[in-house]
Design brief:
With about 325 residues, the chain is mainly beta. It has two domains: about 210 residues, Jelly Rolls (Sandwich); about 80 residues, Jelly Rolls, CATH 2.60.120.10. The protein contains seven helices and 19 strands. The strands form five sheets. It has a six-stranded antiparallel β-sheet with strand order 1-2-5-12-7-10, with no helix packed on it. Strands 14, 15, 16, 17, 18 and 19 form a six-stranded antiparallel β-sheet that branches. A three-stranded antiparallel β-sheet has the order 9-8-11, with no helix packed on it.
Length: about 325
């Protein structure tokens, strides 16, 4: 089968969570039959959760099969050299009806040693937030490991953490080792390395219907925590019909495109992800037109050399440098 160049959509991988809600259904119009869906994994190469193509000639193919058969066409030569046939990004939508646990993620070195995995650097784009919604990110200034352990023992950990109010359009960068929690009432898009390694350190003393607490990973977390103050909230420009840079880091680059008309990209040899956070648009590749809407995550293979997007929408543009 010859490789066909077109925008790839994938079947959402839906995850029930104790903190999940209904916004993925009501806001993003996902086909969901549960009131506790916390995550929709839009594109994933995580073992056990490999995405399946939802459209076009490759419909029904797994991302793994697609890359195994067409590594250069999907990833591009440089990405293939760097990651072999491992897709390097994981993209999700998250709906927090309740507060998530306070947690953190290991860096590449620790994740490789302990779990044979990538680390988990993340970026959050707030798509919708209820009034008074907030997130918890990082320690307050001057907190030491001794402070952390003391407050963890006395169950007062939130008192030494920063609470940040959030609204639609806010962007937060979560480096590895940063303690964090998404607060209730927040719907967000999350870009991250391909990893599902999370160290949960505090869960608001919650128990399930059987009176059981969720597992904590306090010992694992101790070596992984970064107590240094970090740049968390990222400002960005909002110039129309162009890609405004939000973040450039070793793991992924993220731009935002406020689209009111047309945006064209003469692509280099790498894959691009586009996330439609609101509105509607069309993608044109070689005179073929594909329609997309809010909640869609689109993979543009490396083999595509030119792309035009038209419509009225907000898009995140994601790639690996």
């Amino acid at each position: 089968m010859s490789f066909e160049k077109y925008p790839l959509l994938f079947e959402p991988i839906l995850k029930e969570r104790i903190w999940g809600g209904t916004k993925l259904k009501t806001v993003l119009k996902k086909e969901i039959h549960s009131d506790k869906i916390g995550e929709s994994w839009e594109i994933s190469g995580v073992p056990g959760d490999i995405s399946i193509v939802a459209n076009g000639s490759f419909k029904g193919w797994s991302l793994e099969k697609l890359i195994n058969q067409y590594p250069l066409e999907i990833l591009g030569q440089n990405i293939y050299k760097r990651f072999n046939k491992q897709f390097p990004l994981l993209f999700k939508f998250l709906d927090a009806k309740e507060d998530l646990s306070i947690q953190l993620h290991p860096n590449d070195k620790l994740a490789k040693e302990r779990h044979n995995s990538f680390g988990k650097t993340e970026l959050w784009y707030i798509m919708q937030a209820d009034e008074d919604a907030r997130v918890v990110v990082d320690f307050k200034e001057g907190v030491t490991q001794e402070d952390y352990l003391s407050h963890l023992k006395s169950k007062t950990l939130p008192s030494i953490l920063k609470e940040i109010p959030v609204k639609k359009g806010d962007v937060l960068f979560i480096e590895t080792g940063t303690v964090h929690a998404i607060g209730k009432g927040v719907l967000l898009a999350e870009i991250q390395q391909t990893s599902d390694i999370t160290y949960r350190v505090y869960d608001w003393d919650r128990v399930d219907l059987n009176g059981q607490s969720r597992e904590l990973h306090v010992d694992y977390a101790l070596e992984a925590i970064n107590y240094n103050e970090k740049l968390v909230e990222l400002p960005y420009a909002k110039n129309k019909n162009t890609n405004n840079e939000i973040l450039k880091c070793p793991f992924f680059d993220v731009n935002i495109i406020p689209l009111e008309g047309a945006y064209s990209l003469q692509k280099d040899d790498r894959f691009y992800l586009y996330v439609c956070t609101e509105g509607d648009c069309i993608f044109k590749i070689n005179d073929e037109i594909s329609h997309f809407k809010a909640g869609d995550t689109i993979l543009i293979p490396a083999a595509v050399d030119k792309l035009t997007i038209e419509g009225k929408a907000t898009l995140l543009e994601i790639f690996v440098s």
